[in-house]
């Protein structure tokens, strides 16, 4: 062992330590660290050059000189449309020996190529060949038909480790080109050759596109249109059987922000029987017709991950039919859609393996349906339902109905408990909205609804992220059972906190709602030992420093609290925030997104 090196220098020889340190630093820090010593130079230089994003630095002579010197350290290279990669290609034979000895990009794993044209096709093909370990490749064909780029297509076909291929935003990709590439990179063969698994055609308008409607690409059962049907008319399309072609081993297809008729999607998917992940986020012009989900399921029966977020061409009924066609769904993303009660009921009825659901800002839906989901989805791990209000009264009523249907009892005093005890991420908007029938309101007062919700949350012992939007709507408490008076002075001086325990908790008050205060029943959440992040966005203002101290001491993995000052009841919120930051430095207090 070289004892001349300092202990710090020897530590920096351990890659795992460098990797952990670099997670908390930016590129400017890396650049400065390389100038400290030779050991730091060796340790930080590969991290500094690992990823090169497109930007103004491509026009900097100093950067261009350095990238030639350190090109072999680059693993991720992202080029802009008009960047030149000639400097990263070996000089021609007969060039100066010094130029031939420069370090070039030969170990890339991910590359986004500049726009392909006739003038740079050969250079791009050569660049791909000098990086045989490529796993992720993005290309742009815009000016000429892709069939003219034969050298580039051959180079792509020689990649033995390619996992992802992207033609995002293309305007000239032809079906024959895609066929050729997939035959060499993704075919399902007896010897297991073919590594390509993900195909992306995002940000592409296929209307009036050289790719056409994909009939030449399709296999087996193909969607066709009637003889007199308009280009964008899908109501007349029907299925007909054609000879089966070789299937491709694509498991992920991304069609985000595309414009295409549904027949094109069906024709594409007919060659991907192993497809398990399909993204149609912000897809346009699809106009989902009756029977489309079943036709899609006939071609790709193994879809388990589906993203239809930000789509306007699918109503609640159509989305419910889509969900019903894929009972094996494990992830469903429907943010900013017309996902509603029918869709939610379809998930409850058909998708027992659902693990991730994102319905942020979806349509209003039945609160009882949300209770049924939480009471039936054993596999649920992540739920994001922000922007949709669920009335706890209706959830409690459904919990009691379910308990009565099952004819059993529960550890909860208020109905059937949530079975999704494996939830790790929960984002939910819960409200108490008094019913028109005052008799129901008397049965389910806010105090009872609050205890129901806290008891349910307390069962989710694997929660790591919790964000509740809470509100008590239009409720007037006419009873005199509150019996609670604010205990003043939870904190004294800036650095002093009262030591006595807070006894006033879970008070039977109809004026209190879910606000993470002791008086609302915060201690019922003491079982959330895995909680790492808590969001207080749109939480009623009742939190004091005593509650913050309890959270820090009770939840050992807590590392972030969002929007703390907005949930503090005292006017001197900054004082509390400073105290918390000083005494609990392991917790990050974030006040914005």
From TrEMBL:
Domain of life of the native organism: Eukaryota
InterPro entries, sorted: LRR_dom_sf
Gene3D superfamilies cross-referenced by the UniProt entry: Ribonuclease Inhibitor (3.80.10.10)
The protein's name in its UniProt record: F-box domain-containing protein
Organism: Podila minutissima
Phylogenetic classification of the source organism: Eukaryota, Fungi, Fungi incertae sedis, Mucoromycota, Mortierellomycotina
């Amino acid at each position: 062992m070289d004892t001349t090196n300092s202990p710090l220098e020897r530590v920096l020889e351990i890659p795992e330590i460098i990797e952990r340190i670099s997670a908390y630093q930016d590129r400017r820090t890396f650049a400065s660290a390389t100038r400290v010593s030779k050991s730091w130079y060796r340790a930080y230089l590969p991290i500094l050059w690992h990823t090169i994003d497109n930007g103004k630095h491509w026009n900097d002579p100093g950067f261009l000189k350095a990238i030639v010197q350190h090109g072999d350290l680059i693993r991720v290279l992202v080029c802009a449309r008009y960047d030149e990669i000639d400097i990263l290609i070996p000089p021609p034979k007969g060039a100066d020996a010094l130029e031939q000895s420069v370090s070039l990009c030969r170990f890339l794993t991910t590359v986004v190529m500049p726009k392909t044209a006739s003038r740079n096709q050969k250079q791009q093909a050569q660049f791909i060949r000098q990086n045989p370990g490529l796993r992720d490749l993005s290309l742009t064909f815009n000016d000429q038909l892709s069939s003219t780029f034969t050298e580039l297509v051959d180079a792509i076909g020689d990649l033995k480790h390619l996992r992802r291929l992207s033609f995002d935003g293309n305007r000239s990709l032809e079906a024959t080109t895609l066929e050729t590439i997939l035959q060499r990179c993704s075919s399902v063969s007896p010897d297991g050759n073919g590594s390509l698994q993900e195909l992306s055609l995002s940000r592409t308008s296929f209307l009036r596109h050289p790719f056409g409607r994909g009939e030449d690409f399709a296999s087996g059962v193909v969607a066709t249109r009637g003889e007199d049907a308009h280009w964008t008319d899908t109501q007349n399309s029907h299925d007909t059987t054609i000879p089966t072609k070789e299937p491709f081993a694509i498991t992920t297809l991304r069609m985000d922000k595309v414009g295409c008729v549904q027949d094109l999607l069906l024709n594409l998917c007919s060659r991907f029987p192993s497809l398990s992940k399909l993204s149609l986020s912000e897809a346009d012009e699809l106009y989902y017709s009756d029977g489309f989900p079943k036709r899609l399921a006939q071609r790709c029966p193994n879809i388990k991950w589906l993203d239809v977020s930000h789509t306007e061409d699918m109503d609640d009924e159509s989305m419910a039919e889509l969900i019903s066609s894929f009972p094996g769904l494990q992830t469903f993303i429907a943010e900013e859609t017309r996902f509603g009660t029918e869709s939610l009921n379809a998930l409850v009825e058909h998708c027992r393996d659902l693990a991730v659901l994102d319905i942020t800002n979806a349509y209003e839906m039945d609160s009882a349906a949300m209770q049924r989901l939480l009471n039936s989805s054993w596999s649920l791990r992540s739920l994001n339902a922000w922007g949709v209000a669920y009335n706890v009264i209706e959830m409690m009523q459904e919990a009691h109905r379910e308990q009565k249907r099952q004819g059993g009892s529960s550890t909860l005093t208020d109905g059937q408990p949530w079975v999704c005890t494996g939830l790790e991420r929960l984002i939910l908007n819960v409200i108490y909205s008094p019913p028109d029938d005052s008799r129901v309101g008397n049965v389910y007062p806010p105090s009872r609804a609050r205890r129901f919700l806290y008891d349910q949350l307390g069962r989710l012992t694997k929660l790591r992220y919790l964000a509740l939007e809470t509100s008590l709507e239009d409720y007037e408490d006419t009873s005199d059972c509150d019996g609670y008076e604010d205990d003043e002075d939870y904190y004294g001086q800036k650095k002093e906190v009262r030591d006595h325990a807070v006894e006033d908790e879970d008070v039977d008050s109809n004026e209190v709602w879910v606000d993470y205060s002791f008086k609302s029943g915060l201690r019922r959440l003491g079982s959330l030992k895995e909680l790492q992040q808590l969001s207080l966005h749109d939480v009623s203002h009742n939190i004091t420093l005593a509650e913050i101290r309890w959270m820090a001491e009770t939840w050992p993995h807590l590392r972030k609290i969002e929007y703390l000052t907005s949930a503090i009841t005292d006017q001197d919120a900054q004082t509390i925030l400073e105290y918390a930051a000083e005494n609990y430095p392991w917790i990050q207090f974030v006040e914005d997104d």
